[in-house]
Design brief:
Rossmann fold; 4-stranded mixed sheet; globular
Length: 211
């Protein structure tokens, strides 16, 4: 085991203890492959599954895997009209499992997400029976101020490019704290505690994933 890998494992153990204090469950997986299998092991066959925009889950190969298994998938990308999209969002809120990542996680176990349309932060906060968050160790930050700075510095600019947003950060790579019509920073969610036992599960992965 490399020094970096051992450090990741030790840090993850500390973060997991702090997540547990906040009534959230944490796991550490050293590799993407281990993390994918952990996600799948947590979801019983026949469950309904939906997700928010997440490069991390894509990189883990979770979506390819769940499409080959016996799950009910609620995929917002299949909507062809605003009416279909609204109907799908209603189903998403009632899903058994919501899959996503985090924009940042503090060493003290607080989870930070910043959204544009806010379907992702809405489902993390309320609705689906279970939320599974997978995050690479690159998402860790020392505290809330550092976490929000991390999101605006390293996550939002590439995400704006990914979704084709016409924002200052998409053009310059630097956050301008904009009020652009295309802003993807409309809602900030800080998950400091889960009120419901077993609802929020965090899988820390010993690799750099997502933004």
């Amino acid at each position: 085991m490399s020094y970096k890998s051992l450090s990741y494992e030790n840090t993850a153990a500390s973060v997991i203890r702090n997540l547990e204090k906040r009534n959230m469950t944490g796991y550490y997986c050293a590799t993407k492959e281990e993390a994918r299998e952990k996600v799948l092991s947590l979801i019983p066959e026949g469950s309904s599954i939906t997700w928010g925009g997440t490069e991390t889950m894509t990189q883990l190969g979770v979506f390819d895997a769940i499409r080959e298994k016996n799950y009910e998938l609620i995929d917002r990308a299949t909507a062809k009209t605003p009416e279909e999209s609204r109907a799908l969002y209603a189903k998403m809120v009632c899903a058994d499992y919501f899959l996503t990542s985090a924009n940042a996680i503090t060493l003290d176990g607080e989870i930070v997400n910043i959204d544009g349309n806010s379907n992702r932060v809405a489902c993390i906060a309320y609705g689906p029976s279970h939320v599974i968050i997978a995050a690479g160790m690159n998402k860790l930050a020392a505290n809330l101020d550092a976490a929000i700075a991390r999101v605006k510095t390293f996550a939002c600019p590439p995400n704006a490019v990914r979704v084709g947003a016409s924002t200052p950060c998409a053009r310059t790579g630097v956050c301008a704290d904009c009020l652009s019509p295309d802003s993807i920073c409309c809602q900030t969610l800080i998950t400091r505690k889960s009120r419901h036992d077993g609802r929020i599960i965090v899988i820390l992965v010993g690799e750099e994933l997502g933004f």
